[in-house]
Amino acid sequence: MRRDIEGHGTPSDDPYEPDRVEQICHAALALEPANRAAFIAEACAGDERLRREVESLLRHESNVDGFLVEPALLTAAQRIAEGSEHALIGRQIGVYHIHSLLGAGGMGEVYRARDSALGRDVAIKVLPRLFVTEPDRVTRFMREARVLAALTHPHIGAIYGLEHVDGVPALVLELVEGETLAAHIKRGPLAPTEALMIARQVADALDAAHERGIVHRDLKPANIMIAADGTARVLDFGLASMAAGNVPHGGLTPPHSAVSTVASRVGAVLGTPAYMSPEQAVGGVADRRSDLWAFGVVLLEMLTGRPVFAGDTDEQLLAAVLNDDPDWSRLPAATPLAARRLLRRCLQRDRKRRLDSASAARLEIDDALAPPGGEAGEAGVVVPVQGWSRSHKAWIAAAVLASVAAGAAAVGMIGRPEATYVKHFAIPVRGEVSQLALSSDGALLAFVMPDVDTGRHVLHVQAIGAPRATALTGTEGASFPFWSPDNAYVGFFKDRKLMKVRPSGGAAQTIVEVTDTARGASWGSRNVIVYSQRSGGPLWRVNADGTGAAALTDTLLTPDEQSHRWPVFLPDGDRFVFWGGHFSKDGERSGIYLSSLSMRQKVFIVAARSNPGFASDGKLFYVDEAGQLVMHAFDSTSGRLEGDVRVVSAAVGFQAALYWGAFTVSATGAVVVNPSTATSQSVLTWYDRSGNELGTAGRPGVMFNPSLSPDGRRVAVDISDAKASNVDVWVIDLQGDTAGRFTFDPAEEATPVWSPDGGRIAYQSADTGTKVKVTSGFEDGRIVAQRPAVSLTTGNNIYPNSWSRDGTSLLARVEGVGLESAHLALFRMGDPRPTRLGTNNSNQTNGQISPDGNWLAYASYESGESSVYVTTFPGAAGKWQVSVGGGSEPRWRGDGQEIFYLDSQSVLTAVTVRIGTAVSFSSGPPRPLFRARVRPRLSTSDLFSYDVTKDGSRFIVNRYVPPSSVAPLDILLNATAAEAPGSSLSPATR
């Protein structure tokens, strides 16, 4: 059978289908020279004229860059043009004098000409005489003229007019001096910022075209010119399609010819295989989302310097487009998170899930170029500029200097004790900064901020005085950053690991595994890290290389204390201060303590409600009982405070549930304060399976763990009351949209779970353990699972997850002790002895008993990342993994035939399951439904972000609500110089 590039191997009646000569040439060049003759003979199928044309183009190869063709074709094309009747060099066409041939391809020959009337150089594109008799080729050539006439945009090559040469149409086009993007990429990958700036211009061009109903359909590096000043132009709209309603009347051709029958017919594979969208590859109709696919391929190729899809033939390339995933590991480590997100959204094979507008792509690029801390489009991103022109480097340098000039004087004062005290120097941020840490020299700020798409915290680093921050890739889910003594690394917690990453970016490295939600760490000058690896329990120590992990303050944890947390090393690298105390008994002994690596004792310093901060000149910072950030002189040898306490800031964010104040102190005495509390509000929102928002329940608040009643009429959720510094369970009536408080103890009460009959709710009490209370509210909660003392092997806090089918037992997550991870245990009513399910030490959570009571779905870290598994219940015989690429929070459909879970990017995913007798279980492939955008987790009690109706048709999601406005962070330079001129520090009032 004849090989037909554009027709899937089917015979063709027309030996000169659009781009046939060019496509056969490109395919032949991709083969070894020895294999080309046989391929050409088969592809031309006995057509002698077609074969001669192809062989002529292939006779010579050149490394010179062309205007519209691949470099290898330029020399051959020039010889053909010069030796044919159609050679125009030296001729005069109207006011245009032809000087030289720029290039040639399937859609025309392009010449350089001089416009004698306007005194400018232009490009003249002439349809080769060989194709003048082909109506489809002429139609496409004229359509390109019409499309360009409909577009006026700085990043689209302009058309100046239409001429005819001996009856052959010729387009007069803007001459773009420079090189093709393809030639630029051949020299190696582009720096991320350069690639993104080019991509932004291309997105602008596509947006303008799409607004006019024009789809390019052949976007590729060879069709993008980069001018000498770095400006990008999108060229070659020869394959573009135009909606009939968008045809400009009075244009170059009549409106009825708006769409070529060949160019738009279903089944014609048009374009360049390596850049075709999957729908184009199978002959489907292309729309603007097809251009977005090609846009993603081009951007990924710019960043990696390599083709995204590989193959020796067109068929192999098309197969790769349809079946192979991009190699994301090739992306440079410095690629911004927003750019990675953009690439994945563009390269979705299902175009219903693909990014659907170039304007949205431009916004994503703006986020990548201007991370939180500055508005999109502002100058001032400090980036590598290797390979850029001198004008590019000068422009960036000027932009950076202009953007930071206002803060330069303030930055210069950091670390200069003699400088005047500055009360307020605002650091703008665009999202909620919930945890932050200054480098020891006060020059760099690390902080975490929620990603609006996934709801997960991402680690950012910002130079003090710079207008914006850099998001560090690979840090999704990070918490509580801290710095190494030399400021070479930022440490943080993520996915049960203590990790480190360079502030400039790169791969994050694991230092040591931790068991649960951590509460702070400090890296001392002796290269020892002291850290809290869970919300309750002692501090631990580990060497910076990951060796020697051991409990440190376990013998110092008294019965009146639940937690040691928030350690801060003193300059000697031996002594450190930390917070210790009881969560619901803020007595005299809950506050700041002094201890050391070498002595096994602690010294009480002061009653406080927050983490400490320390400056090397002997000043201790903390949040006092009045909620003010205060500073006190401190004798680090004796542990005694000296002199008067002074107020640093009356407005400081405070998270009561964490005993954490939103401030950080450098060794030099610089202080950064977040005046607002990053509470990460959310609202319960209804969605269908397609992700369409159906409505909300209740009001926005600081909440978690939504749990639907069995009849679907009510939802229980735990809500934090910031004023009362308390967390309680509330019940919302979904029919009347009214809410009522369900629990009233002063201790935190969370993680509500309805009994099968809807008559009771189980919940966790921070004081006592798991309680059960009737939903009528006429009795107090009855303790089902007693919270043991810290020293007991059964664990610490107990969080109910699921009821047994008969309502006689509760499945709960039990926190481990020491190095033990959390595990699932079954508590039977009236029996104080729990039954542990499973024995591995892999942090089991989110246990959900199936509707028939015979199976258990749960999440576990046993594979190194959180994944969803199913086992039998209660025997735990056998185990099946149902999630792919990470998963958490499984929920069953009411008939037990489907399991839902959240993947690592917060995409709500469905898996069909088939359950038989005994241990017969199987599951289908995961099917992504929609991105849930859940609220970031802040506490160990934050277990569930959503629930699902029994029929699996609707989901109630704890949707993250970004704040409408965010107060800037305040930096106070040389805050310890209390008596410096201009100081506003004042004695504290009590």
Number of strands: 62
Shape descriptor reads globular
Q: Please tell me the CATH architecture of the domain at 682-960 by its name.
A: 6 Propeller
Question: What is the average per-residue confidence, as pLDDT, rounded to a whole number?
Answer: 76
Roughly what percent helix?
10-25%
At a glance:
Helix content is 16%, strand content 33%.
Q: How does this model look, in words?
A:
With 990 residues, this protein is of the alpha+beta class. Among the domains are: 177-369, Orthogonal Bundle (Transferase(Phosphotransferase), domain 1); 514-678, 6 Propeller (Neuraminidase); 682-960, Neuraminidase (6 Propeller). It has 14 helices and 62 strands. The strands form 15 sheets. A 7-stranded antiparallel beta sheet has the order 41-40-39-38-37-60-59, with no helix packed on it. The longest helix has 23 residues, at 390-412. It starts with 19 loop residues before the first helix and ends with a strand. The relative contact order is 0.06. Mean pLDDT is 76; it is low at 1-18, 60-86, 244-269, 371-424, 788-795 and 979-990.
Topology, element by element:
Layout: H1 20-29, H2 33-44, H3 48-58, H4 74-82, E1 92-93, E2 96-105, E3 108-115, E4 120-126, H5 135-149, E5 159-165, E6 168-174, E7 178-180, H6 181-186, H7 192-211, E8 214-215, E9 224-227, E10 232-234, E11 241-242, H8 261-264, H9 278-281, H10 288-304, H11 314-323, H12 337-346, H13 358-369, H14 390-412, E12 422-427, E13 435-438, E14 444-450, E15 457-463, E16 470-471, E17 479-483, E18 490-494, E19 497-501, E20 509-513, E21 521-523, E22 528-531, E23 540-543, E24 550-551, E25 563-569, E26 575-581, E27 591-596, E28 603-607, E29 613-615, E30 619-623, E31 629-635, E32 640-649, E33 654-655, E34 660-661, E35 663-665, E36 671-673, E37 682-688, E38 693-708, E39 714-721, E40 726-733, E41 738-741, E42 749-754, E43 760-765, E44 769-774, E45 782-786, E46 798-803, E47 809-814, E48 823-828, E49 835-837, E50 845-849, E51 855-860, E52 867-872, E53 880-881, E54 888-892, E55 898-902, E56 907-915, E57 921-923, E58 927-931, E59 946-948, E60 954-960, E61 969-973, E62 986-987
Helix pairs in contact: 1-3, 7-10, 7-13, 10-12, 12-13
